[in-house]
Amino acid sequence: MRFNIGTWFAQPMSQPPSWHLACVECGTTYLGLELRYRCDCSATLDVIHDLDACNLTREILDSRLASKNPLDRSGVWRFRELILPLGDETLSNIAVTRGEGSTQLYDASLVGSEIGLSNLWLKHEGENPTGSFKDRGMTAGITIAKHLGMKAVACASTGNTSASMASYAAISGLEAIVFIPEGKIAFGKLSQALAYGAKTIQIEGDFDDAMALVQEVCASEGIYLVNSINPFRIEGQKAIVFEIMQDLDWQVPDWIVLPGGNLGNNTAISKGLLELHALNIIDRLPRIAVVQAAGANPLYTAWAGGENLVPVKADTIATAIKIGSPVSWRKSMRGIEALDGVVTEVSDDQIMDAKALVDATGIGAEPASCATVAGIRRLVDEGVIKSEDKVVGVLTGHLLKDPDVVVKYHTNNLEGIKSQRANAPISASADIDEIRRIIRQ
Ligand SMILES: *Cc1c(COP(=O)(O)O)cnc(C)c1O
Ligand SMILES: [Zn+2]
Questions:
Q1: Greatest distance between any 2 Cα atoms in the chain
Q2: What's the pLDDT band for 14 if we cut at 50, 70, 90?
Q3: Minimal CB count within 10 Å: which of 81, 104, 142, 439?
């Protein structure tokens, strides 16, 4: 994935930036703004911040909550020293932001009491501008694309990445090219990519096929790749956990739980927590739990067996995590180990039951998001999470992303799923007595 097209450094080589890229496998380092996604050894890269030079404190971060500076108003750029440390002046000029983040952390005691927990919060990342946490990574990825002078961006996507990329590319005047698996993308997401004007290519194949193709095309056509292999996407997504900690007034919970597909997001959350801890902004670390769908569980299998990841053919109703060959698995595993984490898996039936529960409490989220709650339930049942533990679950995407599945669930039309919480519409003639009878029932 290597380009060789002149200088890509915002700062002269004689003043190397304090932050840099480093290979996850062999440790080779590269300059922060070098245009590359992988090491020469082909492994993925991390952004390494100079934490000694970072003077962020709780007080600085809290003061920004009352600021009118657009950077402070973004739930990503509020944490800019740990996202993309180019300085306030540069960032004010180049940041492509839609005011992402600043999502609600719901006290979800209704959901908690049903699954045996007394302290459950749900961070609703569906409340981002395009309806998923992908906006947090995308604001960083597109800002870098602009800064590097790229003209076009591309991604392979199960839907939400393409929706987000299409929007952020459109507002910044970049061409957007989306690779999606044909017929396997939720309608809410496909409609966003089309509406925001992305060139949308439906591949006869699954997400993993699309991912392989997009990497080749970006390398040969000089297009900037904004999949989560892109290390700056991961940096933006760390802001989910920065915000969770700020929402909780820096009181660290016992667990953070989230779904895992391509595994960029749990990588980001682990990295963000370790950085906050190194800076003494938090005084201890929570544990992390990553939840996979049983039909797309290569990380679970690798973690449970203590082995390297073996790709699988993915199949699950939760299309956002229907990924059989996750690119970020090594980074992900490293973060899980550092946070004494666990990986679990849940069936589609359990995902949909948890979704119906989350939806009916008025919070609502798309299927993959609710794998979080299904996973928490399983871990509570197994005694891994204790009933008095403080748990934060991440809801990754908005309920309206996949309305098809919702209607089918509530009308008992999902193959292989028991619709135990179905709330089907009731047909009635336009007759007041009949309607009174229905309402009084
Ligand atoms: C992308 C996505 C995921 C999976 O995140 P990864 O970083 O790929 O593990 C889960 N849920 C939703 C709604 C998503 O859009
Ligand atoms: Zn390397």
A1: 83
A2: very low
A3: 439
